[in-house]
TrEMBL record:
PANTHER family xref list: EMB|CAB62440.1-RELATED (PTHR31900:SF34), F-BOX/RNI SUPERFAMILY PROTEIN-RELATED (PTHR31900)
Domain FBD: 352-425
Top-rank taxon: Eukaryota
Signal sequence segment: none
Protein name: F-box domain-containing protein
Sequence ranges assigned to domain F-box in this UniProt record: 9-50
Pfam families in UniProt: F-box, FBD, LRR_At5g56370
Length: 425
């Protein structure tokens, strides 16, 4: 007879194992033995997917309700429900939320399988009234709020809104989350009914948004406590900060087009950052004057835009304490346009970071396709970085003969730092 070793494990460990399973599978374990009959009811995290109930018309919502009502753990740490439009309706959502809130749920995830921007799921008002909910993630749902008085999410720390229909309700929702720390939202073409996004959350520490609309959007942001910001957008017309973000530690910006005024305001907002990752179009940027990135020690710059070296030398000139510089080339085959995008010129003022602080220089995607101006950048860094300890070039899309030629050309450069190690990958 095979020995039942699993049942001899500590109950806490068994519950951890069961919580890794889909809830439907965890419930099935109740038939294994008397000891297992009620164990699944103590699982702190429940997960349901209507795809697991295909062919069981009308049973998905009932199974979710029964499982929630049978739950006996003192706190429901997480409830994750994935469903299609055909598997339930708004009243079902209301029942699930009511039971989950009574179970003191801490994290709620509602993922709707969307068929496009024309189909989003309406949410019941009861969703917006829970004083203990800490994390809320919604996908392909419709917010419908007349004003912020309908929202009371005092404990909410994390809010993720994915593929939502955005209108005035977005502002009302944020106004009802006084302690929000982490906000992520995105849209695809057809989802945004507004072009103006006011984000006023004084407690916010982390802001990420991805806007794929080709129409220009405007952002007015009041987040004085912000530490991390990530922006991925096709078209930004306006970007304005109500208060400076003096606590900003890291920012990642990937923007296809940004108006000159918005770019100036955006760059001004980054002066306290310690780490930056930038993919911007220098030919469209208005570089602000009189600003210094005193805290910046790590800079990543994508070299996929024409005249990208203009942005690089703006950053080098105004980042006196920079220690790490990383250039990232993701495209090789369409750089002919770079040849007519302007000549590279030495910065008027010698960058202090090259003289005193830059220690690590990395170039990913260094290849034969780079235009002459880009190769001048590599030589300039090597010739003028007096404290450089390591320079690494990742070579791509070349034969061994072609890469060998590039390596020899770089080795011939007379480096300012005698201790610099030149590395190739």
């Amino acid at each position: 007879m095979n020995e039942d070793r699993i049942s001899k494990l500590p109950e806490v460990l068994i519950l951890q194992i069961l919580s890794l399973l889909p809830t439907k599978s965890a419930v099935v374990t109740s038939v294994l033995s008397k000891e297992w009959k009620f164990l699944w009811k103590m699982i702190p995290r429940l997960e349901f997917d209507s795809c697991d109930h295909k062919g069981e018309l009308g049973t998905f919502s009932n199974n979710v309700c029964k499982s929630l009502l049978s739950h006996k753990a003192p706190v429901l740490e997480s409830l994750h429900i994935s469903f299609t439009f055909d598997s339930c309706d708004a009243s079902d959502i209301g029942m699930w939320i009511g039971i989950a809130y009574a179970q003191h749920v801490r994290k709620l995830v509602l993922d709707v399988e969307s068929k496009g921007p024309g189909r989003v799921f309406p949410l019941p008002r009861s969703l917006y009234n829970c004083e203990i909910l800490e994390t809320l993630r919604l996908t392909s749902c419709l917010l419908f709020l007349k004003d912020s008085s309908q929202v009371c999410l005092k404990s909410l720390k994390t809010l993720h809104l994915l593929s939502m229909i955005y209108d005035g309700s977005f502002l009302h929702l944020l106004s009802g989350c006084p302690n929000l720390e982490n906000l992520l939202f995105n849209t695809s073409p057809g989802y945004a009914r507004v072009a103006f996004f006011p984000i006023s959350v004084p407690s916010l520490l982390r802001l990420s948004f991805r806007i794929q609309s080709c129409n220009g959007c405007s952002y007015v942001i009041n987040t004085p406590s912000l530490k991390y910001m990530e922006i991925e957008a096709k078209h930004i017309l306006e970007f304005r900060l109500i208060e400076s973000v003096t606590n900003l530690v890291e920012a990642n910006l990937y923007i296809e087009y940004i108006s000159p005024m918005a770019s100036e305001n955006l760059l001004r907002s980054l002066t306290s950052a310690k780490r930056l990752s930038l993919e911007l179009a220098p030919l469209e940027i208005k570089f602000p004057t009189g600003i210094i990135f005193n805290q910046l020690v790590h800079l990543e710059l994508y070299t996929t835009r024409e005249a990208w070296w203009n942005l690089l030398f703006f950053m080098l000139s105004d980042s006196p304490n920079l220690r790490v510089l990383k250039l990232i080339n993701l495209e090789n085959y369409w750089r002919d346009g770079f040849k007519s995008s302007g000549k590279w010129n030495h910065p008027e003022n010698f960058p202090k970071c090259l003289l005193f602080h830059l220690e690590t220089f990395t170039w990913e995607g260094y290849s034969k396709w780079l235009v002459q101006e880009e190769k001048k950048v590599a030589r300039y860094i090597l010739i003028n970085a007096y404290r450089l300890k390591r320079a690494t070039f990742s070579l791509t899309d070349m034969s061994s003969e072609e890469s060998g030629e590039l390596i020899q050309n770089l080795k011939k450069v007379r480096k300012a730092s005698k201790s610099c190690k030149l590395m190739f990958k």
